[in-house]
Amino acid sequence: MSRYDEAKKRYEALGVDVEKALETLKNAPVSLHCWQGDDVRGFDHDGPLTGGIQTTGNYMGRARTPEELMADMDKVISLCPGKKKLNVHACYAVFENGEFADRDKLEPKHFKKWVDFAKERNMGIDFNPTFFSHPMVKDGLTLSSPDEETRKFWIEHGKACIRISQYFADETGIPCVMNIWTGDGYKDIPSDRLGPRERYKDSIEQILSEPYDKNKVKPCVESKVFGIGVESYTVGSAEFALTFAATHDGCLPLMDNGHYHPTEVVSDKIPALLCFFPEIALHITRPVRWDSDHVVLFDDETKEMAKEIVRNNALNRVYMALDYFDASINRILAWTVGFRSWQKALLNALLTPNEKLKELQDNNSLSELMMLSEEVKTLPFGDIWEHYCESENVPKDESWFNEIKTYEETVLAKRV
Ligand code: RNT
Ligand code: ZN
Questions:
Q1: Annotated catalytic, 323?
Q2: Is the CB–ligand 1 distance for residue 33 below 6 Å?
Q3: What's the chain look like in SS3?
Q4: The ligand 1 atom nearest the CA atom of 224
Q5: Global model pTM greater than 0.90
Q6: pLDDT, tens digit (0-9, with 9 covering 90-100), for 331-364
Q7: Is 44 a catalytic residue?
Q8: pLDDT, tens digit, 9 for 90 and up, residues 127-153
């Protein structure tokens, strides 16, 4: 009997349908963020990322053009099992023949290359207006700016992005999640905490007044506790974003697990939101002491988040997107480790005897619950994982590092 068959038996003895788990995993889309490949720079400006977030590190081989970024993503895709969706930021517009459009004037045609890329690979596309790394970010503010010209510019950007999101959904036939995040805030103590939030609210309402099909475009608002240079006050705080989504039909809350106080966990927030929202969205990252956007690993909180989606039958209600950026190691490796880790977390959740554990809780059999929860941790998960990778035609073990090395030598090293 193969290791897979033996492992399968162990799980089945606990009531887990392994074949069904694998089938479910193969069909659950996870958004792959284009911005890990070039340190969140994009193609519409020169210079590094600015505006409340930061990449650190200077590893060789950053993608500098759409062609390089797409080639790198293809490498990642070839190393990762599971269904992928593409996640693009507005600053990744592809301009051709010397043309240029500022953020408020972006059009669907500037993203045709991404549509072609996604369609050829059977992927949907998620989208993000880019409210950072731009001269119109005035005094660190965009949608909440007291300067009407600035605010108007960014509202127009948001509206343009709604139209582009609609285009993505129409072209791919798959709904487009459009996430609104700004770094708006103050480094030091503000004298008015309400005004910026009222303007932010009005701005997002204006953006959402742009016509779109609610079944195809899913706008979200992402909250944050603080950012670099805006340590004292964030306009789009947790309460602001959650209440905005709750009171605006069709708008989803987006939780990024790097955006809370360090002892708060998003795993516990997922079921809280599922009580009220038909759909929610996630940014999956790894905060180390703060919103440091480290590469996602197969660690305890990552596993817990996946469990909360899977055991609440919410894979079709939670839009899952990766969001991290590490420039200190091989970027393709960083992308791949993160995607594979989230796949492992989902598989682990799907292989957990959730029915049985829930029953023990409901019967108040808490001793047995603790015992079984601990015992399942050492089941032969790796044998199922390897089988899953094989069935998806991707490397099942560490052998993929050789492919990274070859790619680094033959492709990345030439980018000088
Ligand atoms: C920043 C937010 C935001 C960005 C991306 C690039 O703290 O997490 O989602 O990471 O939009
Ligand atoms: Zn995020």
A1: yes
A2: no
A3: CCHHHHHHHHHHCCCCCHHHHHHHHHCCCEEEEHHHCCCCCCCCCCCCCCCCCCCCCCCCCCCCCHHHHHHHHHHHHHHCCCCEEEEEEHHHCCCCCCCCCCHHHCCHHHHHHHHHHHHHCCCCEEEECCCCCCCCCECCECCCCCCHHHHHHHHHHHHHHHHHHHHHHHHHCCCEEEEECCCCEECCCCCCCHHHHHHHHHHHHHHHCCCCCCCCEEEEEECCCCECCECCEECCCHHHHHHHHHHCCCCEEEEECCCCCCCCCHHHHHHHHHCCCCCEEEEECEEECEEEEECCCCCHHHHHHHHHHHCCCCCCCEEEEECCCCCCCCHHHHHHHHHHHHHHHHHHHHCCCHHHHHHHHHCCCHHHHHHHHHHHHHCCHHHHHHHHHHHCCCCCCCCHHHHHHHHHHHCHHHCC
A4: 7
A5: yes
A6: 999 999 999 999 999 999 999 999 999 999 999 9
A7: no
A8: 999 999 999 999 999 999 999 999 999
